[in-house]
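[Discussion] Sanity-checking designs against the backbone

I'm trying to build intuition for which residues belong where. Below is a structure token string of 419 positions. I'd appreciate it if someone posts a full sequence so I can compare it with mine line by line.
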């Protein structure tokens, strides 16, 4: 491909440029994508074909340079049998079900079973039919079919969100963690469809707490605006943005009523949290440790407001066990779902992004100043947590004077402490 050879010659003049050019993600965004839009500025539907041809030339050059010409011939054999002819990159925040439908539609795949055989040959076809943007057990076949890295494909699922909470990223555990938080059918904004150059569904639309489109200030639709039918996330024949029942274009649906300022403000906070949780972060590998520190942070903020764990549980409609699971970062068997975390944070007028950021930017240990002083000796250098009392209030122990106390003791407890 002539445009690739020209870009390669330019990159070879500078070592740093060549290093960036050899990175597949950088090559797609800064070279292939720019080339495609430059060649066909008014025909975006041709960009995918240009990018695919460009990246095929890119693969040949760097594969031969690293492993020799035989490696390129072997790659071609696999490429023509395993790789879809058209394999565009997933859009920003695009859901996995949207991307799969887009691949199928572009390449003439007519059934979910056919899509499953190509992209998820390791699993039963019935599992693919019920796929709902949870991370699959393996991305191997989809990586071959679409030629995109596992890290790029992970971003089309809830994998990074689950990792931040120290949860398992297998489909069933993620499904349980997101129970009650995400919708089971498509939710969408017709105005967004009308503006998109590449039609796709957003992963953030799945979240039931995101009730409106922030860009167009209207409520999201939860069914076809023409016939009222609920729209499955993955269904054949594949036609993104069209109702599978009446076949009419969803962008032509009348927009829902405008959202109030209060609703927009609430949706903005939730949307920002969701985008933060879906975005990959380096610290996710230590998610189990981070979520324990998040729990300690929430406990401290609750106590600063003079609230007990029982009061919080009652106000947000969960059991004391769930609140304890959140505060201890101990989710095994305690049923703390993502919805519970959102309810807890919002009851304290907090954003989850804010809480996570405070924890990540703070030292790995809980500082002494975050623990209350002993009401007897007035020091807080040797305070430890001593469990909960019957009302659910955190109990502390002073290792200096051996006193046990709570932050807001009853009058008789204060009398006993100083007797």
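Best answer:
Here's mine. Compare freely.
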């Amino acid at each position: 491909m002539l445009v690739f050879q020209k870009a390669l010659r330019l990159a070879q003049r500078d070592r740093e440029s060549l290093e960036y050019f050899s990175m597949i993600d950088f090559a797609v965004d800064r070279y292939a994508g720019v080339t495609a839009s430059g060649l066909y500025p008014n025909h975006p539907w041709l960009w995918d074909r240009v990018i695919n041809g460009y990246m095929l030339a890119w693969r040949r050059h760097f594969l031969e340079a690293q492993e020799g010409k035989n490696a390129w011939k072997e790659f071609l054999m696999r490429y023509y049998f395993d790789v879809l002819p058209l394999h565009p990159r997933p859009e920003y925040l695009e859901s996995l079900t949207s991307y799969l439908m887009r691949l199928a539609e572009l390449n003439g795949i007519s059934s979910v079973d056919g899509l499953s055989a190509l992209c998820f040959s390791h699993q039963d076809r019935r599992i693919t039919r019920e796929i709902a943007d949870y991370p699959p057990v393996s991305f191997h076949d989809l990586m071959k079919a679409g030629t995109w890295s596992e890290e790029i494909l992970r971003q089309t699922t809830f994998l990074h969100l689950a990792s931040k909470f120290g949860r398992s990223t297998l489909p069933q555990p993620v499904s349980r963690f997101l129970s009650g938080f995400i919708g089971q059918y498509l939710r969408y904004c017709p105005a967004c469809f009308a503006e998109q150059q590449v039609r796709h569904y957003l992963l953030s639309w799945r979240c039931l707490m995101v009730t409106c489109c922030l860009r167009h200030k209207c409520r999201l639709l939860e069914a076809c605006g023409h016939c009222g039918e609920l729209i499955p996330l993955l269904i054949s024949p594949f036609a993104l943005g069209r109702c599978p029942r009446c076949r009419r274009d969803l962008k032509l649906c009348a927009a829902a009523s405008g959202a109030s300022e209060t609703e927009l403000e609430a949706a903005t906070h939730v949307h920002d949290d969701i985008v933060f949780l879906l975005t990959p972060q380096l610290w996710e590998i230590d998610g189990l440790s981070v979520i324990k520190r998040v729990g300690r942070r929430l406990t401290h903020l609750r106590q600063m407001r003079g609230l007990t764990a029982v009061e919080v549980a009652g106000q947000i409609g969960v059991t004391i066990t769930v609140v304890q699971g959140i505060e201890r970062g101990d989710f095994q068997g305690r049923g703390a779902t993502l919805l519970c975390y959102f309810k807890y944070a919002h009851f304290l007028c907090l954003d989850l992004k804010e809480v996570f950021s405070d924890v990540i930017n703070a030292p790995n240990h809980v500082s002494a100043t975050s623990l209350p002083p002993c009401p007897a000796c007035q020091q807080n250098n040797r305070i430890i947590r001593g469990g909960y009392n019957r009302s659910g209030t955190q109990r502390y122990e002073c290792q200096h004077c051996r006193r046990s106390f709570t932050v807001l003791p009853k009058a008789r407890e204060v009398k006993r402490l100083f007797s």
